[in-house]
UniProtKB/TrEMBL annotation:
It comes from Caldimonas caldifontis. Transmembrane segments: none annotated. Gene3D superfamilies: 3.10.20.30. This is Molybdopterin synthase sulfur carrier subunit. It holds the Pfam family Ub-Mut7C.
Amino acid sequence: MKITFKLYATLTDYLPPQARSDNRLELDVEPGATIADVVAPFNLPMKLVHLVLVNGVYVPPEARASHRLQEGDVLAIWPPIAGG
């Protein structure tokens, strides 16, 4: 099934070079894939996987290993952001 995977801020460095300009990648994933399944091949440090949204809805850390994605979902991830 197809989903859109989006990484923001410093996490875009984990995308393939051709996907970094618009921070998105169209992926084919197995039916029933979880957020954790999608993130794993990109070797994102889990401490940098801070804000996770599926179709604009927040997914808390305890649900990321079990939340199953659906055809057409948009998975977006942001790192922790410090400001001041």
